[in-house]
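FAQ: What does the model actually see?

It sees only this:
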Amino acid sequence: MQGAILNVNGIITDLDRQQFAAWQKVAMYEYGMGLPGKLAKDFKGLSREEALDKVLARFNTSAEGDERQELLDEQDKFYGQVLADLSEDDLVPGIKKLIIALYDHYVKLAINDPAGHADEITKQLKLDEFVDVAGSKNAAQPYQGLVEQLDVPATGCIALVTNQEDLQAANEARLVTVGVGDADQLQEADYQVSQVGDLRYQMLEKVWEDTNESK
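And it is asked to produce this:
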């Protein structure tokens, strides 16, 4: 195993909370009324486009074209402000130990963040010394882009993912995949665990070896 790609949300930290906090700021700024905290669970796992639709529905309004993009840009600005409060306390339990183990075994590490804040997040969480690539330069095929940026063969990489979209992209890039979380959503992964704390370096190495032997 020469490289590992980790999805930032759900693997390294929980960014759904920060995303929702940014949408709360948008709601207050645009509509004079915040979003109650009890709605946070309804925003979990949503794309920014899906979350915007939910906000607009909440206030019985709509937005198209430039207006819609302005709202997305505004949310991203607030999201960046919220990320400034991230600290090592926000790391998913067990992930720092795994990252250090990968680093100690000379496995190159890349962070995938579709929202485009990977570099900022890794610095806030004090992981930048262990990370070789923070964020893909290929928005259309992020995992393919990260493999190229790591400068390792796809067959030498393993990807840790938490949702179907990332799993599909990692599979299309021909990576060995480990799904973390919902077994039904991640059934096409090469291997599955229920939580990050179950992951060990030796496990990932064996999954990578066994999967490559069977392909």
